[in-house]
Amino acid sequence: MKECLIIPLPVLRSATKRSSPDSILLYSRLILHSTESMKTAFLLIAFCSEAVIILKLCILIRTTTSAKIYITPKGWRSMYLDSELNQIKVLQLELSPDSTLLLSGNAFERRIYRCIAHFHELTDNSGHDALPPDFYSSEMNIMFDIFRVNDSEIKKTYNPTMIAERNMQQRVEQSWIAKSCPQSLDKLVCIDKDYGSDEIHNITHYIKNIKRVTKEHLGSNEHPNKIREIWMDKHPDIALKGLVVYDETENYFQGQVRPHPASGQWMLLWDSTKPLTFYKPWMDKNILQPIYDSECDFLIWFMPYKYTELFNATKENYPRIVIMDTRFPRTDFYEYDYSKFTRT
Predict the structure, then answer these.
(1) Beta strand 277-278 with 342-343: parallel, antiparallel or unpaired?
(2) Under 8 Å between Cβ of 296 and 241
(3) Is the pLDDT score of 37 beyond 50?
C-alpha cells in the first residue's frame, strides 16, 4: 500500500448524518474521482453508530473501484483541505450549472465560471510563505485568493476543533496507519468530537470568523490594501481580481422544526404553519460590504455541506456555489438578526 485516500470530514459527516441522495452522490463522486486518479487504497474512518450507512457506501465503492476499505470506530479529521489546491479541486468537482448560482447572470460571471472550470490552467502560488494571490493566470487574465471559514473558531488563536485535530494527528503519526501508509498523513480523517455542541459551533462564531479572515485577506497593518499593493504590483497585466470562500459549515435557519418521531432518525420535520428562513451568506450585507468596497472584481462562495432535508420540505433551491460580480454596488442585500438563527 503506497498511499491512502481520505475524504474530508464535512463530506463524511454530511453523508453519514443525513444519508441524502445529494450528500451520498457528492461523497461518492469525491471518492471515485480520487481513487481513479490515484489508483491506491482507500481508508475510511467512521463512527460505529453510522456503520449501516458506511457499509452501504462501502458496497458502492467496492463495486466501482479496486480500492481497499478499512473501517475503525475512532477517527482523525482530514488535513486534505489545508491545501488551497485541494480546496480548488473540490470546488471544480462540484461546479455545474445545476449547483451554481450566477447572482447577476451576466457575461462577467459566466466568464468567472469558465475560469474555475479550467483551474488546471492556473498557476498555483499557494505556498505557506508565498505572497498572494494564491492562484493566477495571465492567459485567462484572472487571479484570486481562497480561504476557509468555519463556525468553531472562538478567537483567532483558539479553535477547539482545530486543536483536537492537531492533537489527533500527532497521535496517529505513531500509529499503525502511519506505518502502513506513510504518505497519507495529510489525508487522515478526524471525527469532530464537538460537532453537536452549539457552544462550539454557532452562527456568532461563524460570522466573526468570516469577518476576521476576510479582513486579513483584504489588508494588514503593513499593507492596508493587499490587492492593490501586492497582487496588482506582482501581476500588473492581470485585470480580474477575486476571492473564493470555502464554507465548511452546515446550514443555519430561522423558524421552527420538530424532531422526527421515529426513534433514531436524524431528521427534521418542517412545521409548515411557521415561516422558515435559511441563512444565505451571499446576501448578507454585514459580511459582504467590505468585499464590495474593496478592489475585488468577483467573489465565489462555495458551500458543499449545507444540504438539509428542510430544503425538500420547503422546496428551497439552495445553491452549492454562488458567483458574484462585485465590481458595482448592490442594493439587494439582506440584514439578518443572527440571534434568531440556529443550526440544522
Answers:
(1) unpaired
(2) yes
(3) no
Nearby residues of 127 by Cβ (< 8 Å), 6 or more positions away: none
| Dist CA 342 CA 253 (whole Å) | 6
Domain ranges across the chain: 4-343
**pLDDT at residue 250 in the model:** 85
Alpha helices in 181-225 (DSSP H): 203-218
- Whether residue 21 contacts residue 312, with contact meaning beta carbons closer than 8 Å, is answered with no
Only one residue has cell 445545476, namely 98
User: What span, in angstroms and rounded, lies between the C-alpha atoms of 241 and 234?
Assistant: 12
pLDDT in tens, 192-245: 555 557 788 899 999 999 999 999 999 999 999 999 999 999 999 999 999 999
Residue 41 near residue 5, CB atoms below 8 Å: yes
Asked whether the beta carbons of 192 and 76 are under 8 A apart, the reply is no
Q: How far apart are the first and last CA of the chain?
A: 39
What is the 3-state secondary structure of 300-315? EEECCCCCCHHHHHHC
Q: Helices 84-94 and 107-117, interaxial angle, to 10°?
A: 120
DSSP state of 50: G
How much is the pLDDT for 136?
A: 97
Whole-angstrom distance, CA of residue 14 vs CA of residue 16: 6
pLDDT tens per residue, range 69-99:
333 333 233 456 778 988 898 898 889 999 9
